[in-house]
Amino acid sequence: RAGSALSGKHVIVTAGPTHEPIDPVRYIANRSSGKQGYALAAALAGLGARVTLVSGPTALDCPDGVERIDVESARDMLAAVEGALPADAAVCVAAVADWRSEGVAGQKIKKQKDGLPDLHLVENPDILKTLSALKESRPDLVVGFAAETENVTEHARAKRERKDCDWIVANDVSFGEGGSVMGGDRNAVTLITAEGEVSWPEADKEQIAAQLAAEIEKHFR
Ligand code: C5P
């Protein structure tokens, strides 16, 4: 878009859940729909950015003008993000599974007569932290999300420090009836930067995305 500081800037957005295989038919996953990340990718593209959307499995269509790379697991997602570098900004919206099964069985694991299968979990790579720690190719702006259910801004501020990212978008995933953020259409967030924080009222994920995209555009002015 003419006059947008995001014109020609490359932004990587991660979105959706990850699926961590256990055997050929089973996986570990979470309730992320990908809506917030896809909405952000669309908003950034609307402001003229070249957007690479690295997406876990979702039911959503790729937004117009966005290049999507489909991945399944956290390790695939990290490899795709690294492959998409260099970027001016990276926004990690994906709900990456924290753990995966250490081994992936080649055949469907059979129900056992006595006892349960021995699932051993190991930690997944942290994509946001990895991006933030890059030396040469660190994007100028690295943004993370923090889904919290209590002491939201306090936990999110600590997360910003721990992950070494520039901004954190904190959202209270317990708001609404029965915690309707994950998979739902609405969100309420606080943007936390080194300078301070600003809370935006509850809104559609598209509106939240437009506000965040506008802040990112401002950063590049
Ligand atoms: O630590 P936590 O999962 O709450 O952090 C959330 C933020 O970190 C989100 O921006 C998410 O996309 C990112 N993240 C990641 N890789 C992980 C775990 C989280 O990029 N393995």
From TrEMBL:
Membrane-crossing segments per the record: none
Chain positions covered by the region annotation Phosphopantothenate--cysteine ligase: 11-221
EC number of the protein: 4.1.1.36, 6.3.2.5
Q: Name one GO molecular function term.
A: phosphopantothenoylcysteine decarboxylase activity
Q: Which reaction does it catalyse?
A: N-[(R)-4-phosphopantothenoyl]-L-cysteine + H(+) = (R)-4'-phosphopantetheine + CO2; (R)-4'-phosphopantothenate + L-cysteine + CTP = N-[(R)-4-phosphopantothenoyl]-L-cysteine + CMP + diphosphate + H(+)
Q: A GO CC term?
A: phosphopantothenoylcysteine decarboxylase complex
Cite the entry's keywords alphabetically.
Answer: Decarboxylase, Flavoprotein, FMN, Ligase, Lyase, Magnesium, Metal-binding, Multifunctional enzyme
Q: In which pathway does it act?
A: Cofactor biosynthesis; coenzyme A biosynthesis; CoA from (R)-pantothenate: step 3/5; Cofactor biosynthesis; coenzyme A biosynthesis; CoA from (R)-pantothenate: step 2/5
What does the cofactor field's note say? Binds 1 FMN per subunit.
Q: Which domain of life is it from?
A: Bacteria
> Binding of CTP: at which residues?
98, 108, 125-128, 145, 159, 163
Protein's GO biological process: coenzyme A biosynthetic process; pantothenate catabolic process
Q: Domain DNA/pantothenate metabolism flavoprotein C-terminal, which positions? A: 6-218
Similarity comment: family membership: In the C-terminal section; belongs to the PPC synthetase family.
Q: Quote the function comment for this protein.
A: Catalyzes two sequential steps in the biosynthesis of coenzyme A. In the first step cysteine is conjugated to 4'-phosphopantothenate to form 4-phosphopantothenoylcysteine. In the second step the latter compound is decarboxylated to form 4'-phosphopantotheine. Catalyzes two steps in the biosynthesis of coenzyme A. In the first step cysteine is conjugated to 4'-phosphopantothenate to form 4-phosphopantothenoylcysteine, in the latter compound is decarboxylated to form 4'-phosphopantotheine.
Q: Could you tell me what this protein is called?
A: Coenzyme A biosynthesis bifunctional protein CoaBC
Biological source species: Emcibacter nanhaiensis
Q: Which stretch of the intact protein is present? A: 186 to 406 of 406
